[in-house]
Structure formats: C-alpha cells, structure tokens
Specification:
CATH topology of the largest domain: Transferase(Phosphotransferase), domain 1
Number of strands: 12
Distance between the termini: 56 Å
Largest sheet: 6 strands, antiparallel
Shape: globular
CATH architecture of the largest domain: Orthogonal Bundle
Number of helices: 7
Strand content: 15-25%
Structural class: alpha+beta
Order of helices and strands: EEEEHHEEHEEEEHHEEHH
CATH superfamily of the largest domain: Transferase(Phosphotransferase) domain 1
Number of domains: 2
Radius of gyration: 19 Å
Length: 283
C-alpha cells in the first residue's frame, strides 16, 4: 500500500510535533490537505489526497469528481485571479492526489462577525467575480461558504477554492462521461433548502444564495434566521442588522439585498444581478 510520502515529486512539509510523520493542515470533503514542496516547480503547494475509504467505496464517482475539480481549477484559475489554480493531478496505487496553489492566509471563517461593511462587500465582490467566471463556463460551485474562501496574504486578495462538489450546467465546458452532478453534499446552511434536499435542483442560483448568506455571516457572525421548515424566515429578520465588526452599528441599507437574494430566493437569480446590487450598496 502506497503512502503520501511515496509521491516522488512532492516532499511533505507539514509534519507531526516530532517532525517525522506527515500531518494534514486541513480537511476537505473527500480527504485531507498537506502542505508540500513541489520539487519540479520549486514551490510550496497544497496537496489534496482522497480518503482511501471513499476511493474504495465509490472509486468511479470519486475519480470523476476529483478529475472534474482538477479540470475546473486548472481552467478557471487561468481566467480569474480569484480562483485557486490546480497545478497537477495523479494517482499512485491507492493514492489519488491533486496539487494546487498554496494560499497563505487561511480561510475567512475567523473573520465572520469581525469585519466592516466595506471589507465584507469587497470580499464578496471578489468571490462573486470568480463565480461569474465559473458560471460563464457552465460550472456551478455549489459549496460556497467561508471555509472555501481563502485570503491570499501575498497578493492581498480573496480567492475561491474547492470545486469538489461542482455541477456542470454545460457539459461542453468539461468533458467527463456520466452525470453532470458528481459528489453531492454541500453545506445545509449555505444552500436553499430545496437544493440541499434534492441536489438535482442545484443551478446557478445556488451559488448566488450562498454568496448572500456568506455576506450576512461576515457582517453578523450568525446565520440568517430560519423558520420551522428550515427555510430563512423574513418575519424573524429585524429592520436592521448589527455589523459586529463596526461595534454593533445598526444598518438598514443591506436589508433589501438580503431580502431579495436570501429570503426571497428564486431559481432565476443570476450572479450578474447580485453583483450589480452589491456594487451599488453604499458603505
């Protein structure tokens, strides 16, 4: 049985406390991520490895999903600086791996409820640009959340990662035999309930909804209020929200945008309309 240390091109940098055994720096939907040194490109990369149990139980589906994610990251990353680029993909015996750009700075989970309206708007506009590029290529990310948005401290920009749950709306964008939906799951709190319950309904509006919820969470540190049916409940939403990163300043100007794209979600919502509304929001 092969080990991640057998990948001759990559030297694992993240080790345990004794500096001996490889230690993942993060987890993703299908496996773990190591910090590694690419001997060929002479740079640090994020090395994603699929969990062996997933590869054993669903080998074809796991490989198709992994390949789709790699192709999306490689192609979209060339078109948009706000998408983390995939550099390599391969398999060594039972080790299925992918190398992508290492993004120093980590994800934005730690920023939720701690940023100003100006910063939250800037983050979502940047990630919205990445989503727009993906949608133009017929790709729905379907797993947008703070955990998948990274801050690149070298370039001072925010970047979207992890296309592992993507859905192809246009099969000509990425040619892989089989279904257009790969590994399913997504994050319940960042998906319209009907899309989480039935992944077959996932469409472009899924990403728009997720961006709007992420915007809300960045401002408040909390999820939008929900009713007993699990859907966002507009009646529980006050006329203002407290921007925690501004000392709890109450603002009402964001309510129309949140109302339209979260509480009145429609499958016809498109990223262009969302970005237009957000860009016009005064801060």
């Amino acid at each position: 049985m092969a080990s991640v240390t057998d990948l001759y091109r990559y030297e694992i940098v993240s080790k345990d406390s004794e500096g001996k055994e490889p230690r993942p720096v993060a987890e993703h939907g299908m496996g773990v991520i190591y910090k590694a040194y690419d001997l060929l490109l002479d740079e640090i990369v994020a090395l994603k490895v699929v969990r062996s149990e997933i590869l054993t139980k669903q080998p074809k589906k796991a490989k198709r999903s992994f390949l789709a994610e790699a192709m999306a990251g490689a192609r979209l990353g060339k078109q948009c600086p706000h998408i983390v680029k995939v550099l390599d993909i391969g398999q060594l015996e039972d080790i299925l791996y992918m190398a992508q750009e290492w993004v120093p700075g980590g994800n934005i989970v730690r920023l939720c409820g701690k940023v100003t309206l100006f910063t939250a708007k800037s983050i979502i506009l940047q990630i919205g640009n990445a989503v727009q590029i993906a949608h133009r290529n017929g790709i729905v990310h379907s797993d947008i959340a703070p955990a998948n948005i990274l801050f690149d401290s070298r370039r001072n920009i925010y970047r979207l990662s992890d296309f592992g749950l993507l859905k192809l709306m246009d099969k000509t964008s990425i040619s892989i035999s089989g279904s257009s939906t790969f590994m399913t799951g997504g994050r319940r709190d960042f998906m319209p309930k009907e899309h989480f319950d039935d992944p077959g309904q996932i469409n472009y509006s899924t990403d728009v909804y997720a961006l709007a919820v992420t915007f809300y969470v960045l401002l408040t540190g909390e999820l939008p209020p929900k009713g007993r049916d699990g859907r966002p409940d507009r009646e529980k939403m006050p006329g203002t929200i407290e921007v925690k990163g501004e000392g709890g300043r109450k603002v009402s100007k964001v309510i129309p945008l949140l109302d339209e794209f979260i509480f009145r979600h429609k499958d016809t919502h498109r990223i262009e309309r969302f970005l237009q509304s957000l860009s016009q929001l005064p801060v």
